[in-house]
C-alpha cells in the first residue's frame, strides 16, 4: 500500500514532506505527547540507535499533535537528532489510522495511538507496527530493514 503524503513542520520550523525522503527507508512513528514517560523512552530509543539507522540510510520521523515549540523543547531536552513533526489538526495522524479510542484509568477517550510505519524507498508501507513496546521498538524496526 502506498504511504499517505504529508507536509508537516518540524521542531525547527522546516516543512517536511514524504517526497523529501524518496529513495530512502523511512520510519514514521506516531506518539501521544512530548516529554511523557513512554514517549520519551521511545524517542530516546531512536536517538540511541540513530547511528545504526544512518548507516542503513534510514530517516526517522516522529509525529504528534504537539506544537512546533513543544517539539523543540522536547528535542533539545533529550538531544533528539531527528525531525519531530507537528500535526496539530491530526490530519496525517488520522490518515495513517493512528487516532482512536484509548483507555486510561478506567476512562475511554480519543487520542493518538502509538503506531509506527516502515516505508520503503518506493514510498510503500512495508510494515505497520500496532503494538509498540517503547523499550525495544527502535531495535525491532532496525532488524526489518535490509542492508
How many DSSP E strands?
9
CATH topology: Glutaredoxin
Whole-number count of domains: 1
Spatial ordering of strands, largest sheet: 5-4-3-8-9
The largest sheet is: 5 strands, mixed
CATH architecture: 3-Layer(aba) Sandwich
Strand content: 25-35%
SSE series: EEEHHEHEHEEEEH
Question: Number of helix segments?
Answer: 5
Q: What's the quick description here?
A:
This protein has 147 residues and is an alpha/beta fold. It is 29% helix and 30% strand. Strand 4, helix 3 and strand 5 form a beta-alpha-beta unit.
Overview of this protein structure:
This protein is an alpha/beta fold and 147 residues long. It has five helices and nine strands, in the order βββααβαβαββββα. It has helices spanning 37-48, 50-55, 68-78, 91-95, 137-144, and strands spanning 7-9, 15-17, 25-30, 58-64, 84-86, 99-104, 107-112, 115-119, 125-129. The strands form three sheets. It has a five-stranded mixed beta sheet with strand order 5-4-3-8-9. A two-stranded antiparallel sheet has the order 1-2. Strands 6-7 form a two-stranded antiparallel sheet. A hairpin with a 2-residue loop joins β6 (99-104) and β7. The longest helix is centred in the N-terminal third of the chain and has 12 residues, at 37-48. It is globular.
Features:
147 residues, alpha/beta, Glutaredoxin, two-stranded antiparallel sheet, 5 helices, 9 strands, 29% helix
Question: How is the topology of this model organized?
Answer:
Elements: E1 7-9, E2 15-17, E3 25-30, H1 37-48, H2 50-55, E4 58-64, H3 68-78, E5 84-86, H4 91-95, E6 99-104, E7 107-112, E8 115-119, E9 125-129, H5 137-144
Parallel strand pairs: 3-4, 4-5
Antiparallel strand pairs: 1-2, 3-8, 6-7, 8-9
Amino acid at each position: 500500500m502506498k504511504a499517505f503524503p504529508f507536509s508537516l513542520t518540524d521542531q525547527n520550523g522546516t516543512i517536511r514532506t514524504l517526497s523529501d525522503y524518496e529513495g530512502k527507508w523511512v520510519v514514521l512513528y506516531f506518539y501521544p505527547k512530548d516529554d511523557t514517560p513512554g514517549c520519551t523512552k521511545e524517542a530516546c530509543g531512536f536517538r540511541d540507535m540513530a547511528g545504526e539507522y544512518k548507516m542503513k540510510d534510514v530517516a526517522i520521523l516522529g509525529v504528534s499533535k504537539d506544537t512546533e515549540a513543544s517539539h523543540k523543547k522536547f528535542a533539545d531536552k533529550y538531544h533528539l537528532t531527528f525531525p519531530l513533526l507537528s500535526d496539530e489538526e491530526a490530519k496525517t495522524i488520522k490518515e495513517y489510522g493512528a487516532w482512536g479510542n484509548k483507555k486510561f484509568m478506567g476512562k475511554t477517550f480519543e487520542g493518538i495511538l502509538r503506531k509506527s510505519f516502515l516505508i520503503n524507498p518506493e514510498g510503500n508501507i512495508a510494515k505497520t507496527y500496532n503494538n509498540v513496546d517503547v523499550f525495544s521498538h527502535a531495535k525491532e524496526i532496525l532488524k526489518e530493514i535490509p542492508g
